[in-house]
User: Fold this.
Amino acid sequence: MTLAGHFPYWIVVVLMMVGFYVVISHGNLVKKIIGLNVFQVSVFVFYIAMGKVEGGTAPILTGQPETFSNPVPHVLILTAIVVGVATTALGLALVVRIRAAYGTIEEDEIEDQETEG
Amino acid sequence: MSMAGTSFSLAEHLPALQVVIPLMAAPVAVLIRRNTPAWSLAAVITWICLAIAITLLNRVLDTGTISYALGGWAAPWGIEYRIDRIGAFMLVIVSAIGAVVVPYARASVAREISPDRQYLFYAMYLLCLAGLLGIAITGDAFNLFVFLEISSLSSYVLISLARDRRSLTAAYRYLIMGTIGATFYIIGVGLMYMMTGTLNMADLAQRIPAIAETRTVLVALGFLVVGISLKLALFPLHAWLPNAYAFAPSAVTVFLASTATKIAIYVLLRVLFTIFGKADVIHVEDIGAVLMVLAVVAMFVASTVAIFQDNVKRLLAFSSVAQVGYIILGISLVSQTGVAAGIIHVFNHALMKGALFMAVGCVFLRTGSMSVSAFAGLGRRMPVTMAAFVVGGLSLIGVPATVGFVSKWYLIQAALEAGLWPLAVLILLSSLLAVIYVWKVVEVAYFQEPPSFRHDLREAPLSMTVPMWLLAGGCIYFGLDAETTFGIAHDAAGSLLGVLP
Amino acid sequence: MSPEIAILLAVALPLVGAIGVVMAGPWPNLRETVTLAVGAATLAVVAQIAPAVMAGGRPAVTVFEMLPGLTIAFKVEPLGMIFALIASFLWIVTTIYAIGYMRGHHEENQTRFYAFFAVAISSALGIAFAGNMVTLFLFYEVLTISTFPLVTHHGSDEARKSGRIYLGILLGTSVCFQLLAIIWTWTLTGTLDFTDGGILEGKASAGVIGVLLALYVFGIGKAAVMPFHRWLPAAMVAPTPVSALLHAVAVVKAGVFTVLKVTVYIFGIDFLRDLGSSEWLQYMAAGTIVIASLVAMTKDNLKARLAYSTISQLSYIVLGAMLVNSWGVIGGGMHIAMHAFAKITLFFCAGAILVASHKTEISQMGGLGRAMPLTMGAFLIGSLSLVGLPPLGGLWSKWYLALGALEAHQLVLVGVLMLSSLLNVAYLVPIPIRGFFAEPPPAGDAHDEHHAHATDGIQEAPLACLIAIAITVAGCVILFFYPESLFDLMRQVAPIP
Assistant:
């Protein structure tokens, strides 16, 4: 299996760092979720790039000898995407309820309310 | 199909049923939409799960490791359910706690979760149980991730169900950190797949040693260990845990404290010893030393922080972080005694923390508060609850005739066998910190008068005290007669380390 | 009844008694009857075992296996027999005394008091009969925890503070040092059974043995060797029957008993003597004897003075063990009995004085002997027994301890024993002397204004208290005239060459 160069992996690393940075640095709860998404997407890209074989097609049997991409990582990442969507949905739902309870989605303002109360 | 045929095939498919039954029951609980039937369903399902888990454990002890090809697809292409000693032991721990918590939850949930959401609690509870059981049973690294996320997502929901709004931020925080941990894990799995082309753990174990020195595999190991450490709340990656435990509904705290971090420890064992065992990375890459240092720091720092907590649930949560330190310490010694000490403490700590959090839940039911001052006078007003608290507390300290003593004994023995007597001293010293934070609560309960306006305080209902005493009684029973549990833990450690088949 | 069943019964009966006491709680008369009946039954059962042990038998019974190789097992040997007999006999006497004291002093929570008292006795018997170190440690910790509610009986802030010191030191030393030593021994030898001649010989280097011995001696916090003695004065906040039975007999004797037991059956005295690992511990014990006596002289509170006296006397026994020769061990073992009877008498008297006159400070007790001649007389006899004067039992144990010190060629330690006797005279005897000969202090307090003297209107203590005191005083005298059986038992433990 030949890999399609190292380019996709640089993308993965950059996305991962960007996502991680957003999660850590931002006080806005929605932005944190977005960061988390970027972070997860980097993993999706990583899996997809890993399975891709240069010049390979989708692994559909046509009877002629062909080069296929490895379908397993692609299938796996479908599962991971579903998990990611569920996580995002749940995270956003929590943010909605936090907003209802605190009237804000800024981390520091929530903290202020807690220390006062 | 004849009756005999049915029962035969049922027995054969128990590994699948172990996970599928609670998984299927969860949406049913949602569809029921009524609280009492949902509770009854959860009760029946959890006890069935326990029965299955015990059957499987017995079978494993009798005939050795069970391998089950899900959907008939043989490993390593299909997903394999693989139950060995440690896996079966974890199944029993998780499902036993699961079964005991449901009867307890009835009154506690009725008090702590608003009526229109209670059936959701039981649905999420079953889902979480399914996820945890799945982690213990699967032999496939990616499948494990899926179960990990099933249990994690449902536990975020469970935590956020409490009436206290702080439970929302706690759940959110846990969600962020938990997802990062799980994503780290999946990166690690991906890197391993890239190098080996397999996801089956047994298969990975065969292939890793040849390529163990490559950078990719080492990076994979790093991602795996860090990701799992987040999940098991290893110091300093424990920040999500105290608030999550403190503000979740009591029944949730009991369940998660006794099972969720424990199952993450199991995953760590799997990675370090099953997948990377033959490559002996724990020695080669000094992972053992790093874990040991972190464990010792956790024991002291978390225990010290616990002393200064006013919220008893938070206090016990920090104590959990410290206790995770003991478990990791045992594992980091990489001897059969040490790993066995870690495994038996997983079981013992589940018992004692379960009993303690249940006691706190009973107190919350009656007083509506979790601060230390709310315990004033409860030694007289709620004697049954406080007695269970004392038993659990003594177990934490490690007094003889409790499970804590058994754990401590083997942990120290392992440290001495390794020639690390300063470590033995550190273990003993840190257990004295437990005396302080346990006694802080006990003193208030027994020496202070209850506030005069609380003259109506009475004992918690039987539905809560009986499960609580099941666990508290277990703390004493398994403290006196530890042969069975230690036998299993010792053999499990042996097979993890490759000493036993 | 076979001795094996008797052993189990002896440990179980007080526990059953505790449950009985709780159930009989609402009816004080019934409750106290239950305690007395169980006490008598326990003593009868313990006494049943004695003939077999005196004849050289070692009845043993294994209850169950706790962990692979580690059993909960009992094995009665002479030392444990002595301790068990003393503890169960004095339990009855103390119960009689407690009935008078607790009622006379209008204490609260008496049911809890009697219940935990019974649990404490059960664990003391468990320690006495323990067949291995794990069993002993189990009961050792149960004893610590079951006496905690007794120490903090009054629930006041002072009681709570003392309770913390009590629990902190006893749990701390036992967990940090003793448990470490036990597990260390286990990893070295693979057994923890008490064996004649010890189990450690040839298993470790002299240095390790020395460290282990220190871990045991200081880890057994109940023996109150300085600097781990602070819990004992703290425990004096408890009601006097607790101080009398537990903190002059059961708990502290459990400590020194364990020291003796470890020295004889874990290390083996011949082995230790050859190594010389115990010599510095002899000086630690000697230091404790002298310093505690000096501190006792400065205490005006009677119970505090008695507590420091106990610390000093306990180190006699530790010293006996650390001399690691037969005479020392025999003297130490006998001193368990002698000191038990003498010191419990003194505490009984202190409690009687408290009940009758509400006085706790020695300086207030002038002239009290005229109002309470029996109590003060008993106090004098108990003091003289501690000093070691004939015709009182205390003479014998001091005699053998001195022999042991001579045998070990430690003239300094003989001197310490002599000096300590003088100090005993100095801090104990003045109390009854003042009681009989000094003038009562003038009554200055407003509520005493209708009395000319502070001692006017004070009568003897309740009858139940006086009966108990009489019995223990008699014990001091009888032990002087009939020490043979005690001596014979101890000779089995440490054969005289």
